[in-house]
Amino acid sequence: xxxxxxxxxxxxxxxxxxxxxxxxxxxxxxxxxxxxxxxxxxxxxxx
Length: 47
Description:
By secondary structure, the chain is mainly α. The chain has one domain (1-47). The chain contains one helix and no strands.
């Protein structure tokens, strides 16, 4: 394996990991902000 390929591979995997953690963090924050509103909606049965 040549060096450029190795660098590209590690860079893409790094970006992928960053994107995954960012997406997880965003989803977590979104869920936290929506949860208080979502629970009454679920309990009343209105979606």
